[in-house]
């Protein structure tokens, strides 16, 4: 894990993007230039991020971040990148909650200027728990923090979910409702099945993922509860922190209307994903951080809603992560970075923990 190359995430030329960005910016703010254009080392494997400053005699601001729809030539993680949807989500959250969402400035739906639609937002300075190497590994600021500092960060981060779920009126986010029939949870899972079918189109299917879908059906909640606005990718790696306090909540491309526990299960499992990998490589990690029991208690105290059916929702999170990991692995195959093994399930980094969840033994 420590020496594995980071999967390729783009085929775009950063210098060409910088030139085209400056030309576009001049159409929005006459005489402005984009300077210091860079791609952050933490750039994700879905939408791409560019950081830049505005050089102008009277700029409304100087520090910006740009979210650009994924490069179609880079074997994208998701089939669709709806930048209008992300832009609208951030505006709704910013207008109807007190979450620190960066102010969105411009939306460009025309793919001409940069090759794909994008939006620009204010850039918030701070630090982000790293994914590579994961913050559960030694050698980063969060791992080196005291227990008290991590507890403060954990409490503030769960508070983000509580406030998001409680504050944003459902009617303001109806454009995020998944299509189809049935309740919000049914439609959310149906969308994930469609995503999985897209991922395995023309390549080997995953018996483990399909067994996980079957297990969901067997353990389906009797009362999923009403939907709320879900962040979607609800994890601390998508938060900019000022010290140990959230300063900006990022990455809204997976936002949807769903039961509260969909977000909570994702928060719980995405930490466990990193923790399990860290332990597998011989390190202790952060076993007392973001524990499921503490997250559930804290969320209940903040909202009055006691999380239910969390075995189901953490399995669902692990399943969703497995589909993403399978797509990322097949992208590495596409670029010649890895070969397909005899057992395609081993392409999923956390196949062991997902299998344990399907068998009902993970939380024992």
Automatic annotation (TrEMBL):
<dbReference type="Pfam" id="PF01636">
    <property type="entry name" value="APH"/>
</dbReference>
<dbReference type="InterPro" id="IPR002575">
    <property type="entry name" value="Aminoglycoside_PTrfase"/>
</dbReference>
<dbReference type="InterPro" id="IPR041726">
    <property type="entry name" value="ACAD10_11_N"/>
</dbReference>
<dbReference type="InterPro" id="IPR051678">
    <property type="entry name" value="AGP_Transferase"/>
</dbReference>
<protein>
    <submittedName>
        <fullName>Phosphotransferase family protein</fullName>
    </submittedName>
</protein>
<dbReference type="InterPro" id="IPR011009">
    <property type="entry name" value="Kinase-like_dom_sf"/>
</dbReference>
<feature type="domain" description="Aminoglycoside phosphotransferase">
    <location>
        <begin position="85"/>
        <end position="284"/>
    </location>
</feature>
